[in-house]
Write a structure and sequence with these properties.
This protein has about 300 residues and is an alpha+beta fold. The chain has a single domain (about 1-25, about 50-290), classed as Endonuclease/exonuclease/phosphatase (Deoxyribonuclease I, Chain A), CATH 3.60.10. The chain is about 15% helix and about 35% strand. It is built from 3 helices and 17 strands. Strand 12 (about 180-190), helix 3 (about 195-215) and strand 13 (about 220-225) form a beta-alpha-beta unit. Helix 1 (about 70-85) packs parallel to helix 2 (about 95-110). The two termini are about 10 Å apart.
Length: about 300
C-alpha cells in the first residue's frame, strides 16, 4: 500500500491488506461483464453509476472511556455480517480491532481483495501514539474491498494541525483510494474545547486536506464518515463546515456522512448497537455518478 505525505501530515499510516481473487466494489448482485467500448453518444452503453453501501461506527473500545462495555466488537461483527457494507469507517478502536473486523469483512466479501487501514491518534505528553488499556494503539480505521490485480491502494493519513491543548489525545484522519473511483475517508474530531476545536478540524479537513489530495493525486468523488462531535442546528453547527453542494446525513447526533456533489446519499438509517457502545451505527447507500471518467491509480 502506498502512503502519501503532505506538509500537514504529522503521522504515518499503518495499513493491512488481505488479498484474494477480487472484483470492483459494486451493489449485489454483481454486475455482468462490461460490454466492449462504444461511442459515448450511444445511449445503450451510457456509463452506469456505482452503488455502494457505507457503514459508520464508533465503538468506544479503548477500554478507558466510560462508554466502554467490552461488547462493541461482537456487535460490530454482527452488524457487518448482517448488512454486508462495501465501506466501513471505524472510530475509537484499537489496532487489533481492525484486524479482527477485517476477517469478518472478508467473510462477507469472499473472493475480493480487502483493504484495511488504521491511523493512530497521537499522544501529546509522550510524543507517541495514544494507547488502549491493553497497550495497543488507539485510533480510527477503514475497511473496503478493491479490484485486483491492481497497483497497491493509496492511503493518506495524519493528525489534524489544530488540537485542543488541554486534551492529550491528538485527533486523526484517514483516507483510502478505492480503485481510483472513490476516495473514502474517516475522522474522529475533538470532543473538548467547547467543540470549537472540532469545527476548526472539520473546516481544515474539508477545506484544505481533501482538496490538496484531489489536486495532487487527481480528483475522485469523496465521502467522509465519522464522529465529528458536531450537531446540525446547534452552536457550533456542523453545516458551517460542510462545503457548498456536498450532501450530508447524520444519525440524529454526532456521527455524519458527507459526500461531494457527484455522490448521491440515500436510504440513510441507524443500526442499533444494543447498548454495546454509546452511538448507533449509521448506514447509507452511495450512488456515484458513472458519467465522470474514472482515474486508475498510477
Amino acid at each position: 500500500m502506498a502512503a502519501r505525505s503532505y506538509r500537514f501530515l504529522r503521522r504515518t499510516v499503518v495499513v493491512g491488506c488481505l488479498v484474494a481473487a477480487a472484483a470492483l466494489p459494486a451493489a449485489r448482485p454483481a454486475a455482468p461483464p462490461a460490454a466492449p467500448p462504444a461511442a459515448p453518444s450511444d445511449p445503450a452503453v451510457a456509463p452506469q453509476p456505482t452503488v455502494l453501501r457505507m457503514l459508520q461506527m464508533n465503538l468506544c473500545n479503548s477500554g478507558r472511556a466510560g462508554c466502554y462495555t467490552g461488547r462493541a466488537m461482537a456487535r460490530a461483527a454482527e452488524v457487518i455480517t448482517a448488512q454486508a457494507p462495501d465501506v466501513v469507517t471505524l472510530n475509537e478502536i484499537c489496532a487489533g480491532n481492525l484486524t479482527a473486523l477485517r476477517r469478518v469483512f472478508q467473510a462477507v466479501h469472499p473472493g475480493r481483495t480487502v483493504v484495511g487501514a488504521f491511523q493512530a491518534a497521537g499522544d501529546r505528553p509522550s510524543g507517541d501514539d495514544t494507547r488502549c488499556s491493553n497497550g495497543q494503539r488507539f485510533g480510527i480505521g477503514l475497511l473496503t474491498h478493491v479490484q485486483t490485480p491492481s497497483p497497491p491502494a493509496r492511503v493518506y493519513a495524519g493528525t489534524h494541525p489544530t488540537q485542543d491543548l488541554a486534551d492529550p489525545e491528538e485527533r486523526a484522519w484517514l483516507c483510502v483510494d478505492v480503485d481510483g473511483a472513490l476516495l473514502a475517508c474517516t475522522t474522529h474530531l475533538s470532543a473538548t474545547g467547547g467543540y470549537r476545536v472540532a469545527l476548526a478540524q472539520c473546516d481544515h479537513l474539508l477545506g484544505t486536506i481533501l482538496p490538496t489530495i484531489s489536486r495532487d493525486a487527481g480528483y475522485e468523488p469523496t465521502v467522509l464518515g465519522g464522529d465529528l462531535n458536531l450537531l446540525a442546528g446547534h452552536d457550533p453547527d456542523v453545516r458551517s463546515c460542510t462545503p457548498r453542494g456536498h450532501q450530508r446525513v447524520d444519525d440524529g447526533g454526532l456521527q455524519h456522512i458527507m459526500a461531494t456533489p457527484d455522490i448521491k446519499l440515500c436510504c440513510r438509517r441507524t443500526v442499533p448497537m444494543n447498548g454495546a457502545t454509546d452511538h448507533p451505527g449509521l448506514l447509507v447507500t452511495l450512488t456515484i455518478d458513472g458519467s465522470r471518467p474514472g482515474r486508475r491509480p498510477a
